[in-house]
Design a protein that fits this description.
Elements (H helix, E strand, L loop, with lengths): L8 H20 L6 H31 L7 E5 L5 H7 L7 E6 L11 H10 L6 E5 L12 E7 L8 H13 L1 E11 L3 H11 L3 E6 L5 E2 L2 E2 L1 E6 L1
Parallel strand pairs: 1-2, 1-4, 2-3, 4-5
Antiparallel strand pairs: 5-9, 6-9, 7-8
């Protein structure tokens, strides 16, 4: 699977500033001055690990825990390179389908483009149970109560401002079937998602930490599950 670096400028800056600060610290001959550059370098390294390895392990674990029926209808918000979509698609059989939407912003993920993700899907022979479309998660082009699951991985936090994130959560809830489940893997704004879903009237809601595989530097990935 092709792996896209999330927000590629962030680890570049962390590591670059860390190296500059390390040179300055070594020149000072004061051990205490090594603390800050080491924090930057470790944060950059953790970010790279999670973005290129860890988040995929989280997705595999989350999908294995989903009660996915072969004919399920699933919506993936902010698909990117399709890691979540393809892991789900492997569990489906037509007429089951996972639909991935994105605005394909390359600032959110390196080489983020519909054509690139479609090639990955085709290479995995998953075309019959998956579909990509360009759409904004704040205004979903789907009817009410269409999907058994709505999922998102490190995507909704990119929506700004907070009112737009609330709209994205509301839209996800709108297109979810009664008894269906929303699963959000993200590094920010989990408390806001939780409040919005509670206001919408979810019947069940849990939040858990993703562990070492989800550490984007000092930011910890959390997993929210909510049932309609």
């Amino acid at each position: 699977m092709k792996k896209g670096l999330d927000a590629p400028l962030v680890p570049l800056l962390l590591i670059s500033f860390g190296l500059v600060a390390l040179v300055a610290a070594l020149s000072s001959h004061e051990l205490i001055n090594l603390i800050f550059p080491l924090i930057l370098l470790v944060s950059g390294g953790l970010y790279l690990y999670t973005s290129l390895v860890g988040k995929y392990k989280i997705i595999v674990r989350v999908v294995s825990q989903m009660d996915l029926q072969p004919n399920a209808q699933v919506l993936d918000l902010g698909t990117g390179h399709g890691a979540f979509l393809m892991e789900i698609a492997k569990k489906l059989k037509a007429p089951g389908k996972v639909t991935g939407i994105d605005i394909w912003n390359q600032n959110d993920q390196l080489n983020n483009a519909l054509a690139n993700t479609q090639q990955l899907i085709d290479a995995q022979d998953l075309t019959g149970v998956s579909q990509l479309t360009t759409a904004n998660m704040t205004d979903l082009p789907f009817n009410d109560e269409t999907f058994n699951f709505v999922v998102a991985s490190v995507a909704i936090h990119n929506v700004k401002p907070a009112s737009a994130r609330a709209k994205a959560i509301s839209e996800a809830y709108r297109v979810l079937k009664p008894g269906g489940e929303i699963i959000i893997i993200d590094i920010e704004h989990i408390a806001q998602y939780q409040r919005t879903l509670q206001q919408l009237g979810v019947s069940e809601l849990t939040v858990s930490n993703a562990g070492i595989n989800g550490m984007y530097g000092i930011m910890m990935t959390r997993i929210l599950r909510a049932r309609k």
